[in-house]
Design goal:
With about 325 residues, the protein is mostly helical. The protein has one domain. About 60% of the residues lie in helices and about 5% in strands. The protein is built from twelve helices and eight strands. Strand 7 and strand 8 form a beta hairpin. Helix 1 runs antiparallel to helix 5, helix 2 runs antiparallel to helix 4 and helix 5 packs antiparallel against helix 8. It is globular. It starts with 8 loop residues before the first strand and ends with a helix.
Length: about 325
């Protein structure tokens, strides 16, 4: 059956081919920047701070994403080193991108005199927005899809438009649109983060932890549907635990095929479990030990100047923000 599929190349400029994949990733980065800039203004952080962070963070994320993917596909890339840099053909890992971006953000925020937790909280919605949009790059490239399904499931059960259904036809077989599942999960995550960050009980760092928990839960269950998961050969007991945790999904879905010769544990599923446990524990431990003293809504203090972000020593704005910081500090002690 002939179907109309999307050309992964958006346009050409002479010999240069511009791929939709790159355009979509760029859109995700831009939306993330706008969200961070808008929220940063509430705390007196200039837009230049986030623009510079983006200029440093995007390359770091791309390098991390590609390195993560290549590392777990090294048996292939060691024989095809020329393909290592060909990210326009797909093959990047979101967890790797997150690692690269977070490491960059840590050193950049510290160099500017801001606590990492305060900055990464502001950027949490930006991160998940970038992931939401970026997944559509996988859609265009016909990658990161799930196991086979009937066309009727896509058309009549999910009620997807024909242009999505057609793109899910890979070499004559229709597949789960896992890119769409994850995009919708991330959309719900953004809404939740927007609500949480206005709550006075949220402490510094906890919005970022909440983002990781939400994303990882969705990724764990969606990853089990995919047929291209990075995996490794682990103990049978570990594989059984992962399969047991995923088993509620079998009421509706069948797991995506995972070649036992390649591995029996999906790396993204295992990492998702670790992140959920680690983030939940971090929230509990930091509160128990009194390490989470700042709230998300508190003014952000530059520890190099001792002033709130955007304040100038002795200036009217600085005086007003310093007073606000003092009021917030007293409120926090009363709530603790």
């Amino acid at each position: 059956m002939d179907v109309l599929r999307i050309n992964p190349i958006a346009f050409s400029l002479g010999a240069l081919e511009v791929h939709w994949y790159g355009i979509i990733l760029g859109m995700g980065a831009l939306v993330g920047l706008l969200l961070a800039v808008r929220e940063g203004k509430r705390f007196g952080i200039s837009s230049d701070f986030f623009m510079d962070l983006l200029l440093l963070g995007v390359p770091s994320a791309i390098i991390g994403a590609r390195a993560y993917f290549v590392l777990f596909k090294w048996d292939y890339y060691k024989d095809h080193p020329g393909e290592i840099i060909q990210i326009w053909n797909g093959g990047i890992a979101i967890y790797g991108a997150l690692i690269g971006a977070v490491v960059c953000g840590f050193f950049y925020s510290r160099s500017k005199g801001f606590r990492f937790w305060r900055i990464v909280d502001i950027c949490a919605p930006s991160l998940i927005a970038g992931q939401l949009i970026g997944r559509w790059g996988n859609f265009v490239n016909q990658e990161a899809y799930g196991g086979p399904v009937e066309e009727s499931f896509l058309l009549h059960t999910l009620h997807l438009p024909a242009w999505i259904v057609n793109q899910m036809n890979v070499e004559g077989t229709f597949h789960h649109p896992t890119f769409l599942y994850e995009s919708l999960w991330n959309l719900a995550g953004i809404i939740i983060l927007f609500i949480l960050r206005r709550q006075r009980f949220m402490r510094a760092g906890e919005l970022f932890f909440s983002y990781l928990i939400w994303y990882s839960i969705g990724r764990f269950f969606i990853e089990g549907l995919r047929t291209d998961s990075l995996a490794f050969k682990g103990p049978d007991s570990l594989a059984s635990i992962v399969d047991w945790l995923w088993s509620p999904m079998t009421v509706v879905f069948q797991p995506g095929f995972l070649d036992p010769a390649y591995g029996n544990v999906r790396i993204s599923q295992l990492l998702a479990i670790v992140l959920v446990i680690a983030c939940a524990a971090a929230i509990a431990v930091r509160r128990t030990l009194g390490l989470a003293t700042e709230r998300y809504v508190d003014p952000i203090i530059n520890y190099k100047t001792g002033l709130p972000a955007g304040a100038k020593s002795g200036g009217p704005a600085g005086s007003a923000q310093e007073k606000a910081a003092g009021i917030e500090g007293r409120d926090l002690k009363e709530d603790s």
